[in-house]
Design brief:
Shape of chain A: globular
Order of helices and strands of chain A: HEEEHEHEEEHHHEHEHHEHEE
Oligomer: homodimer
Number of strands of chain A: 12
Radius of gyration of chain A: 20 Å
Structural class of chain A: alpha+beta
Strand content of chain A: 15-25%
Helix content of chain A: 25-40%
Largest interface: A-B, 72 and 72 residues
Strand order of the largest sheet of chain A: 8-10-7-11-9-12
Largest sheet of chain A: 6 strands, mixed
Chain lengths: ~325, ~325
């Protein structure tokens, strides 16, 4: 085998900090013990990335996987308006990775946590027979009364999205093509897939200012995640592609390949941007935040009375038909 | 494929409760939101069971796996003296399990949680290419000042263990023999492997009375986990097998197969009993708890000055040699 338990535990002890604010007891005991901040709720979420379902080592370095596994869980904290505090890692490695791979993964996992003010407080390592996988439990907190659920949208709210969704899916298509060479602009799209950025600061800024009525992160595509938010809130929505915030790289692909690319942009997933609704009375406050650069977001539509349906108008104003079924990675 | 995402999500919604004390927001949003109890620390732990490493479906029904996956994580909460509050499940299923299997697993997972006052607050489902695995994050709490770490043992403490360790390993050997028929007493041992009981009530009783100086749960065998506790505490210990609490089933195997069975009993693992040390001044209080039946535990040895070494005296008083290396499931 590639690494002994002793080496692995020594590596873990070396890499992860034992002391941090609010951490009563870190890695090395049966549990981590954390001290919740007074006046806050604790947020907790868990996500798993499995090789062959969510990533391939062909396109994903251990550092990319570390960042992405952290990003996926922290994005859920961001979507509630929370601040990340602690992360626990369950690493199921296989005999096909060596100590260098594991070391690179763990070091970058720590760095990724630190960048978001998050401390690695515990975890678990095991040898899996075949599938390499990582499960990250993220713990965050949000001031009482500031939490943003996905169920709070009301008819007449504006629909906003952060960043430029769709880049991740288009980048993934480029990766999958596995060409010997890529152009600079193509690499930028690919990096959007391999190194997504959880929108922690934007989510907190929005929640602290009490701007969104509902919020969700985009893991399975704007269309599916917006439908989830609409269903949870009991409203419908119409979005238009005329003002949709495309990156210039994505716009270039739409120009070349035509309008069909929009389906991929709206349904591709793994953007980890935030999708949120804003009551009319708070739109001005949001637009100020956007103008000063505290949040990067664009208005894409409007909610209305209804039971969770989504209408998408293309850039000519015609209704665009989209697949309706939910998406479970690897199950289609 | 065996189950669609829609069916799976409907099943999850049907099975898991949305409301519980301290649960601000349950399954169905980006995160669960929980309200910590004032004056308490939050305990958190994560454990994974992987088919082929930790279990085989040949010997493990979905109900057994549900109970065991819950038990393994709750045992860590018990070992800190905590009360379980919430659990999050990451289920990586494969195409080799059908909706009946998943339904049976999820229902028993809920029941197992409820038995320990624990609420399933969130999770994640994904389709894995090959390895079926479950990762359970358990969240508990303990009153400030009552938490029991593994590092608190001092020279001169008594060493105690709950229940009858070794049964699980002996039961596993019987299971693995895969015989067409078993006797009643053999089935009892096998059940100790397939349906371990986390010692939540005992752990809490001990911590509430401030009895242990250190505590750990036995996942990898008395010998290895005791060494871990000794190393964390910076003491050595001597234990004797003369008064070791054997079940009558295990005693029967020792009688038949001889003293070599002791190595298996001490190093087999997966007992999920509690191992703890007690300062001399608190032994009387503990013996009262044991006498009244609030805790089932037996004294097996004594700590002393030292640097983490463990001496085991067999029933004739001779030193028993044991393997020293740590144990990572599946990595030997």
């Amino acid at each position: 085998m590639s690494i002994t338990e002793r080496e692995l535990l020594a590596m873990i002890e070396r890499i992860f900090p034992q002391r941090a604010d609010g951490l009563e007891l870190g890695i090395g005991d049966d549990c981590a013990a954390i001290r919740p901040s007074p006046g806050h709720e604790t947020l907790i979420t868990v996500d798993t990335l499995i090789e062959g379902t969510h990533f391939s080592r062909k396109y994903t370095t251990p550092r990319d996987l570390a960042r992405k596994s952290m990003a996926v869980s922290l994005s859920d904290i961001a979507a509630m308006g929370g601040a990340p505090r602690f992360a626990l890692l369950s690493l199921n490695f296989t005999r096909t990775v060596d100590r260098r791979w594991i070391g690179a993964y763990l070091k970058e996992f720590r760095s990724a946590a630190e960048r978001f003010g998050c401390v690695v407080a515990g975890g678990n390592v095991a040898l899996a027979p075949r599938d390499l996988s990582v499960t990250v439990t993220a713990v965050g907190e949000v001031k009482r009364g500031r939490r943003v659920d996905r169920s709070g949208a009301r008819p007449g709210d504006a629909v906003y999205v952060t960043g430029t969704p769709g880049d991740s899916a288009l980048g993934f298509d480029l990766l999958r093509a596995n060409r010997p060479r890529y152009r600079q602009w193509e690499r930028r799209l690919m990096a959007r897939h391999t190194r997504p950025e959880p929108r922690v600061a934007w989510g907190r800024a929005l929640a602290n200012k009490k701007i969104p009525s509902a919020m969700i992160d985009i893991s399975d595509g704007v269309a599916i995640d917006l439908r989830r938010m609409l269903a949870a809130s009991g409203v419908s929505a119409r979005i238009g592609l005329f003002n949709f915030p495309l990156s210039k790289e994505a716009a270039r692909i739409v120009e070349t390949k035509g309008e069909a690319v929009w389906r991929r942009i709206l349904s591709g997933g793994e953007d980890y941007e935030l999708l949120f609704t804003v009551p009319p009375g708070r739109v001005k406050k949001l637009e100020r935040l956007i103008a000063e650069g505290s949040v990067v977001a664009a208005r894409i539509g409007q909610t209305m009375e209804g039971r969770g349906s989504l209408t998408v108008a293309d850039r000519s104003g015609n209704v665009l038909a989209l697949e309706h079924e939910g998406f479970l990675h690897g199950s289609e």
